Amino acid sequence: DTAVSQTPKYLVTQMGNDKSIKCEQNLGHDTMYWYKQDSKKFLKIMFSYNNKELIINETVPNRFSPKSPDKAHLNLHINSLELGDSAVYFCASSRRTSGSSDTQYFGPGTRLTVL
Amino acid sequence: GENVEQHPSTLSVQEGDSAVIKCTYSDSASNYFPWYKQELGKRPQLIIDIRSNVGEKKDQRIAVTLNKTAKHFSLHITETQPEDSAVYFCAASSLRGGGNKLTFGTGTQLKVEL
Question: Among A14, B12, B31, B114, which is 20 to 30 Å from B78 by CA?
Answer without folding.
Answer: B31
